[in-house]
Amino acid sequence: xxxxxxxxxxxxxxxxxxxxxxxxxxxxxxxxxxxxxxxxxxxxxxxxxxxxxxxxxxxxxxxxxxxxxxxxxxxxxxxxxxxxxxxxxxxxxxxxxxxxxxxxxxxxxxxxxxxxxxxxxxxxxxxxxxxxxxxxxxxxxxxxxxxxxxxxxxxxxxxxxxxxxxxxxxxxxxxxxxxxxxxxxxxxxxxxxxxxxxxxxxxxxxxxxxxxxxxxxxxxxxxxxxxxxxxxxxxxxxxxxxxxxxxxxxxxxxxxxxxxxxxxxxxxxxxxxxxxxxxxxxxxxxxxxxxxxxxxxxxxxxxxxxxxxxxxxxxxxxxxxxxxxxxxxxxxxxxxxxxxxxxxxxxxxxxxxxxxxxxxxxxxxxxxxxxxxxxxxxxxxxxxxxxxxxxxxxxxxxxxxxxxxxxxxxxxxxxxxxxxxxxxxxxxxxxxxxxxxxxxxxxxxxxxxxxxxxxxxxxxxxxxxxxxxxxxxxxxxxxxxx
Length: 482
Known about the structure:
By secondary structure, this protein is of the alpha+beta class. The chain is built from 14 helices and 18 strands. The chain is 33% helix and 25% strand. Strand 8 (204-207) and strand 9 (212-216) form a beta hairpin.
């Protein structure tokens, strides 16, 4: 019934397109007859002439007069069309529909009801719409339909538009903060011979001109930015898209935005102090507050953030001391707790699976420190406890909201860890890191003590209390069935 109704409406509107063309009116002109100004500005021009453009959201005919509503990105205004003022052009109004884009010009008046209105002297059709818009009240209810027709969802939902304006502020405020702190924004390759900088399964593509397979990056240029530290840069950051060929969840996507910075002559403790300051700055600029609720947790970013220890937290929650446990014991504990894992998983991966279960109860914000070396192939070992690394994660609302460490700059140690990761890959672990020969060579030239940190758009989705797909303009979907 709905489909038949839609086809009938489309047929009527297509006939109107033909009629407009017959009358010598281009339904899709490229040149505007007058330069429009924002409706928000025009509303303040009572008694003055103006020109505004936007989408028609209402049309109300009353004999020789027609009222309409016109909306642009800034605001909405009422239109007043009179036959005596428009003459023969008045007839064209019958060929207009809600959803059409129109340019109008005339004097800004105020009606007896107090409504700011453009008393139209003339108008130009800019775009003839063929498909009717859903009503603002009912909108698009089916989630998949909302994501697939995101343009309509955004058109009808001002709160959703506001969400993406906030997201723009989120990234811009982070950029502004880092630049003020002396960091240089850089761009590193998206296509790589070796996917590095994280434990993740990459997407594979083929370069036709060079006839070779490449990987879409799985980190925000971690190994490239560390090469820049070798090259003499001391503070760099990048904000961009990265790609991981993994599962979907409320807080995971395959392609998403990430920021990573690298800072020479500093360690993970310096990084923690800077990041705490940055999160507070970004939250305040984006949301105007530091108190949030997400995933059933109440979070207060103000005040001094605490620290918790990785090994101690696991022992408190599971009774297992992972610094002494063998791989078989960890598997047994995961079985007991009904946590899924792969038979090829390394000890580090199994420990991480155990930790992800534990962290769900932590509201934060806290810094998680004391990670075992098995879960951190790129972090520097602690001098007094070489089985652990100088790493931290930010835990907020039961999830990891940022990851940083003192970067491993010992080329001998790095080469050995790469070998271990490569052996894991050969045993079937597709998430293990690849051996990057050139990066080891770069470290052999010498990289200063460096700290690095990364955070993804997951942080924004949590602070906004939305599933991450809701905070992406156009989430990936399977092809639509015909």
